[in-house]
Amino acid sequence: MGAEIYPLGDSCVIVRFGEQVDPQIMTCITRFALLLQEQPFQGFREVVPAMVSTAVYYDPVEVYRSHSHRDSINPYDWVVNYLRGFVETIQRVENLNRHYATKLIRIPVCYETGFGADLIQMSKIIDCTPDQIIELHSSRIYTVYMIGFLPGFPYLGSTHELLKLPRKSMPSTSVPAGSVGIAEQYTCIYPVESPGGWHIIGRTPVQLFDALINPPALLAMGDHVQFYPITAQQFHEWQEMPQKP
Amino acid sequence: MIEVLHPGVLTLVQDVGRFGFQRFGVPVSGVMDDWSYRIANVLVGNDDQAAVLEISIKGPILKIKEDCIIALCGAEMTAILNQEEIPMWRPVYVPKDSVLSIKHANRGTLAYLAVSGGIQVPVLMKSSSTTIRSGLGGYNGRALQSGDILRIGPLTRLSQCILNRSLDGAFHTGQSMYASWFTHKPELPVAHSDTVIRVIHGREFEVFDLNDKCSLEGQAFEVLPQADRMGYRLRGSYSLSYRLDKPMLSEPVTMGTIQVPPDGEPIVLMADRQTTGGYPRVAQVISIDLPLLAQARPGVRIRFKTVSLIEAQQLLLQREKDLDVIRTGVQLKYLESRQLNKKEMNGCGTIH
To answer: How far apart are CA A101 and CA A95, in angstroms?
Structure first.
């Protein structure tokens, strides 16, 4: 699988692995990011995966002073050459089977009245009962496609065909922290209170982001998530005495 | 220690930004005008990445409770130290228990107050920068308020030398004491003429329906009042329309990425931007012009000009050399001569 490499301005390069999200592309992106973090170059700032591509942020001055001035090429070309090497490496057979840490996290969700403001409305739009929505939502294992929008906010995919619908035309001004939403082919969790356009069907007591721990986000790209229903009482108990999911 | 008597419109603790955590959805944040920020730190002898106060529109009133050196760089702001006006763009000696009052910006919109030793806040995810939208970092994750107490960090050897030399008479003396020299001030955007901002075309440039008039370079864009640290919204005479075959997936973005939502009014993403975006990226402001754009207040007109990536990087390299010269100049002036080595004795061109 080839990769397209192009600039995002003078201090960032994008490595694009495909056009549509799929497990193979996700594997490439995750391995690429891991490899780069293990073998960074002088001037490397960070690597950030997004759905089908990865951004590599760098300092062109440091790249020039440490590397490219010797080869008389500009910083961008030097970085591209360096990254091409990685793209080739992750595709070689011995690396394809290399273990990298992903985890399955089971996340409790309360779908009861008062916890999912849009569940009833959504059941009218897509012609499923609320119980069917809950069953379809909690029965599959999702993959984290990306963390973005807010610290710790996961885009999980993909949802069952029957659950696909566009975002709300009128976003809510305030969605409670822990809210679990559905839109397009994804499901998400709001780590904090926020305005939001996703259809909220439930709420989790689990904390998705803690700035004081390393890593600060519970979920990372490539991880697997399964939701399971809990009662309102269990939700409140969890809040009183938080558990590790 | 510094006590905030009045916070001003929006005063934030910032440093160069929070790198390494965007993959967890944590914005980079940090200073909007990195040139003024870096010069301010150089002038007081701080390390390159020391935290400063980023001051927007109208500045704070501060009680500075210890002897120190300060420098104010960026937008043109009147600064009064103990009832006397002090100049910008140079080191200024501040005696303990002084009151510093920073007024409205006359030109530009952001100024940086560096204090010798740097502003000291708990380091969060390797940075002192503030992301106000998420309440992360800086001073309790928020803008300064009256009554806040800011700590100052330990002085570098250079800062200590500047402080000692200022007291020994190296500075102009009068009511206030400040260096008799200053660094070259960069241009600031003005209301009556267009500010040229250089860009590189984005990957999605081709999906835009552009012609001679309705184009990125053929029209001026006005900075709208909604402009803030997340992004500067712009409006041109002609909106930039486009057609997508299928909805865009979330894509990486960076500071200076010009995104265009369906209404055709471009938004230039700034320091507190989200880590990914879902709108077509028509172009990318080059890093060296980000400080100039950051200083553009609502009402300022922007004209974009396309340049090559090579040129954009060469400009950055040249700018870094200019900063090296200023830094060396400060060291030459204030470090005791036995602390200099031969390399540092050459040239200090841009000190006036």
So the answer is: 14
